[in-house]
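Posting this for the archive.
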Amino acid sequence: MPEQFPPIEPYASGWLDVGSGHEVYWESCGAPDGKPALFLHGGPGSGCSPGQRRFFDPSLYRAVLFDQRGSGRSRPLASEPDADLGANTTAHLIADIEMLRERLGVDRWTILGLSWGTTLGLAYAQAHPHRVTAMVLGFVTTTSRREVQWITEDVGRIFPREWEQFASAVPGHLRQRRLVDAYAALLADPDPAVRDRAAIAWCAWEDAHVSLTPGHTPDRRYQDPPFRLRFARLVTHYWRHAAFLEENQLIRDAASLNGIPGVLIHGRYDVSGPLVTAWDLSRRWTTSRLHILDDAGHGGGNDFMPLVLGALREFAAL
């Protein structure tokens, strides 16, 4: 099985006006008459990349990728000085997916989501289970308050030096707040220098807590000031509101997915999003199966790509 399919260009693309001043960029790749699939990127705020088209066999799938509000090629970007995040919530993103599905004439589709994309994929599938054929979810998160507390505060016990640098970058007048709230305030500060310092510190912490992945190298995207600002703004926005979901909602309601086949792929060394989330989800979503990667953290691993490609090949036959 190939590591990924060869590079491919979209056969169609455009911007969809989803209201509230937002236009989301979308593209379709592969076979126009193939099995519909949707890719949900991570972050929040990472946007899609050409390499993510290569998860899908172009002879089998009609793969749709889109940049979520405020990210990638969507408009306006969260890095713009006057960007308003008020119309950027999980409910808005779910509505965007449905609008895109209707625009493209898709009845049901297979979902591939990674990291934050698993949170969004689960929320979408629980809201619209009759629109989902199957799901492949890698590096599973539900963005619960418990998970946010872990990734911004508690995991500092594993990276004490890096966490001290992360926490000490918050000025004194904000230190009574939760770190995620303090950073959200700094990233919205009128002073661009304050915003950029906060984005640099936030992204340094992001690189630290994913660094247990074997072969990890720092994310070069964080060297780009506009990218790191919109990434940090969107991550803190969604994390501080626990994805705008009820606490434990996605695990609590996982049984609503029973009947939808799913594959969950998670690294044992993933200290950013501990394995227990994927485990609890798999126990309630009985038509899913969990693969634990013994050589992976939050990303990578020798078996990750074969498992994703194998699951998508399996689900193409449904």
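The first strand starts at residue 12 and ends at 19. Residues 152 and 179 are 7 Å apart (CA to CA).
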